[in-house]
Specification:
29% of the residues lie in helices and 13% in strands. By secondary structure, the chain is an alpha+beta fold. The chain has helices spanning 89-108, 110-127, 139-154, 164-168, 180-183, 200-211, 234-241, 320-323, 341-352, 367-370, 382-385, 402-416, and strands at 157-162, 176-177, 185-186, 189-190, 192-193, 246-248, 256-259, 271-276, 291-295, 304-307, 325-326, 372-376, 380-381, 386-391, 419-422. It starts with 88 loop residues before the first helix and ends with a strand.
């Protein structure tokens, strides 16, 4: 049977059947819309980002400058403390060391990244001026606009999309949301299996690529016994988070693989989310379904951010040092210059500068270019980390199942203390 090309983001699809009480897989597939009403509260109205006043320009000769209203400062987003689960302490310690190390490294290189974004923003602003009146934009005005765009990005919802029928056709018993490497554990060993839509080797390769800077490969710290309370070196962190090249687990025809790195811990890998910067009505990634979770804003400060679906970087020269952004320097993502980023930057400008609420991406195949992907390292517990849940009948495969989906969603939300809303 010929090998099939993996679909962008299909690593979020679950194995079948799911194993109960071990975490909820990420799912979602397109189908036919359903118009049957349900008796649930409508989803919260998403406020538009604050429109940013254009930069103040110096006057043309003999023409006095017109001043627009000064935009009030947005309230500061309070810093968040990292959430640490009590079980699997070694995995959480590795993840904590990874986040701390990368945040420090990104802070040290933030100025070049911010300058690239300012250069892009400068050109985008000039394009919107009358050609006969184009003049130099003062740096302080450019920074004011940049900072306002960054605050609008930071205030966006952190979401995970899914298909309501895949999650709630049957009663959902899950308490936590797990990633594919955890779900691949079999009798204490990871056996990562390829599917028709997702090649295991390709997925592991790109996840490693986008998580670690190239210069981590040359780091070598003194060997230590176990994980000590002090910060671990980049090489030791990476050994426990990097699968290495996958090796066949038994018959190669089974397309099942082990990690070649003997210290690899599957629980250290990332969970994929999206930042809904466009305030889109069905979440940030409708290619996975039109229903979605909205997570605690405190999580945002400890996520790593990427422009577009990270799978697009497979096989290229990009790595964490060139495509990874921190929450407190999120505006720098405007300077990202990779495949399709001109689409991504344009939508950020429309939403976070012009104050538009954007619609869902019309083409499912195009979603990968507009995604602002967020990677969370740590456990996600529905009860502790979900602010609310929104279900939609759009895309479910069998409209007659909608009443049962609603009932199961109610039970799930009531059991975990999650607010439940509907959207069309």
């Amino acid at each position: 049977m010929p090998e099939q090309t993996p679909t962008f983001g299909s690593h979020r699809l679950p194995p079948a059947p799911p194993r109960p009480l071990q975490g909820a897989p990420k799912t979602g597939f397109p189908g036919q819309p359903l118009s049957a009403p349900i008796a649930l509260t409508n989803a919260p109205t998403l406020p538009p980002p604050l429109r940013v006043t254009p930069p103040e320009m110096p006057p043309l000769p003999a023409i006095p400058a017109a001043r627009g209203p000064v935009m009030p400062a947005l309230p500061a987003i309070p810093p968040a403390n990292p959430w640490l689960a009590k079980r699997n302490p070694s995995a959480q310690l590795v993840q904590s060391h990874y986040i701390e190390t990368r945040l420090e490294e990104m802070e040290a290189s933030s100025k070049p990244g911010r300058q690239a974004a300012l250069d892009v923003l400068y050109e985008m602003l000039l394009e919107r001026l009358d050609p006969s009146k184009k003049r130099k934009i003062k740096f302080k005005e450019l920074m004011r606009v940049y900072n306002a765009i960054e605050r609008n990005l930071q205030s966006a919802d952190l979401t995970i999309n899914f298909g309501a029928d895949a999650w709630f056709t049957e009663e959902n018993p899950y308490d936590t949301y797990t990633q594919m490497y955890e779900r691949a554990m079999e009798r204490g060993t990871m056996v990562l299996r390829s599917t028709p839509m997702n090649d295991a080797r390709a997925r592991a390769e790109v996840d490693n690529q986008v998580s670690f800077p190239d210069d981590w490969k040359s780091v070598e710290t003194k060997a230590q016994r176990g994980l000590t309370p002090g910060r671990q070196g980049a090489d030791r962190i990476m050994r426990q988070m990097n699968t290495g090249n996958l090796v066949p687990a038994g018959n190669p025809a089974d397309k099942a693989f082990h990690a070649s790195e003997s210290f690899f811990n599957p629980r250290t890998k990332q969970i994929f989310l999206g930042l809904n910067y466009g305030r889109r009505p069905h979440g940030s990634a409708v290619n996975f379904g039109r229903s979605y979770f909205v997570f605690d804003p405190a999580m945002k400060a400890h996520c790593m951010y990427y422009g577009g679906d990270t799978f697009m970087h497979r096989g290229g020269k990009s790595h964490a040092g060139t495509i990874q952004y921190a929450y407190d320097n999120l505006g720098a993502i405007m300077g990202s210059k990779h495949n399709g980023d001109f689409l991504f930057r344009s939508d950020i400008f429309k939403s976070c500068y012009e104050g538009q609420v954007l619609g869902d991406i019309a083409s499912i195949d195009q979603c990968k270019f507009y995604l602002l992907e967020a990677h969370h390292f740590g456990e996600l517990k529905f009860r502790d980390h979900v602010e609310y849940l929104v279900i939609s009948p759009k895309g479910i495969s069998d409209p007659s199942q909608w009443p049962q989906i609603v009932e199961n969603a109610r039970k799930f939300s009531a059991r975990l203390g999650i607010k439940l809303f509907q959207t069309d």
